[in-house]
Amino acid sequence: MTHQQELEQRALKLTIFGNAGMVLLGLVFAVISSSEAILFDGVFSAIHLAISLLSLRVARLLYLPEDKEFPFGYAMFEPLLNLGKGLVIAIVAIFALFSSAESMLNGGRPIEAGVAIWYAIAASTGCLILAWQQYRYAQASHSPILDVDAKNWLIDGLISGAVAVAFGLILFLQHSSLESLVPYADPALVILLVLFVLPIPIQTVRDNWAQIMGQAPADSLRQQVNDIVGNVLQPLPHEDYHLRPLMTGRLIYVQVYVKVSEQQAKDYGVAHVDKMREQLYQQLQNAFPYLAMDLIVTCDRNWIHRATMPAD
Description:
Number of strands: 3
Strand order of the largest sheet: 1-2-3
Largest sheet: 3 strands, mixed
CATH class of the largest domain: Mainly Alpha
Number of domains: 2
Number of helices: 11
Low-confidence stretches: none
Shape: elongated
């Protein structure tokens, strides 16, 4: 197991233990305080825990070689997992939004803000520390799974932090002329939190759906790949080249077709092409640690198009 793999496994185990603690803390305090905001936070942590257990399994699959059942490896499992994470979190958030809206229409709900505020402070501190730690692990291991995990901890930390602020406000309102508004504070807080965090899982769904559908990666990534390939091929005899970069989770797949004339083809023996492949692979891997690459040299442009569809 490489150092990056060890970091990823360690980070995912940290998330599992962290979520188990947050679930227990959230559900106990939700019962004590009768707060739906805390219940939402606890349910969010429970979902995060279940997904973290699945993430640990998927992360191990990603490093397995191809086999008869999956001839191109297991890279597609990563965007599928992240898509599932985003969908589940978005669905729970939308459910909480409608539940709180209904509560607002029915006169709100009473809560024990004094108890709840201590939960919110402890949960927010723990989640933000874990978000920072997971972000560091994600940067060191180049793991999209950990990147999404860090965002989930950040969402959870922001939810808990906002709950702490709101419950402090509720304590103030309970001793003021605005005491009648206190029952509306908890559902109003949930609505505001959902509206604030919902764009994050929606963006996660969009990004990973695009990868599953095989859409081209970001323009900046394509330009980076094109610059590297162009620099490697520049001193070599060729007429043109065609790139097809694809991003699947952490894996970058680059297909390079080099078009040469029949005269130039005489200089391209198998050993020479293998040397080109090695040089190009090394340059690309410096920028993209998780890389798969094909380099094909051809005199016939039709083969460039036949790689994805029949030529006319």
